[in-house]
Amino acid sequence: MFCPTMLRLRELYRTAALLALITIFYNIAEGVISVWLGAADETISLFGFGLDSFVEVISGIGIWHMVRRLGHGETADRDPFERRALTITGGAFYLLAGGLLATAVISFFERHRPVTTTWGIVVALVSIVAMQALIHYKVKVGTALNSPAILADAACTRTCLQLSVVLLLASAGYTLTGIGWLDSIGSLGIAILSFREGREAFQKARGLACSCSCSGNCDTVS
Questions:
Q1: Exposed, middle or buried: residue 203 (CB in 10 Å: 0-12, 13-18, 19+)?
Q2: Where is average pLDDT lowest: 45-54, 59-68, 117-126?
Q3: pTM score, whole prediction
Q4: Would you state the pLDDT for residue 221?
Q5: Per-position b or e across 126-152, b if 16+ CB within 10 A of its CB
């Protein structure tokens, strides 16, 4: 299989690191906006979506660290920093999933209704566009480097895309129908995806998810 030149490798790893940083700062901004608007509008699905974005930041920092190591020619095996980040991420996702599940159940039985879910629609649409772009470029760079680790990061970003779709469906459904429990269903959907992300984070920390820990076939940059 053809491998890029050393100059091209450096360029590709710099791009991969930049994409990781963009993901981190985007999730910080998305988290702040979603939590603030979700609390103001009493929209639990949007609020939970924002909390999920903050957890993604922890995971993103670990991915950025990994990409930098790969770019310097180090092994793709996870170092203590990455394993610790994944363990914290997994625990945070589990706590978030439990909290959202409890909140969704209570809101459902109390027949809670958000003030509005318009901002949920806006945030979800922006997130869908952003995640699609990040997936496209991460897959492009990961394929060029023949790096399963970077391609696995793109797969993780697809989960963020799924979360955005769940938020969009719940928010648009409430706006169109006025059925309050749709917000609770959206929160429940985010809880399920958060639980799945937590389980995958723990698996990666233990080295069980080979697709996220194997190196590519091309030599990395020294």
A1: middle
A2: 59-68
A3: 0.81
A4: 42
A5: ebbebbeebbebbbebbebbbbbbbbb
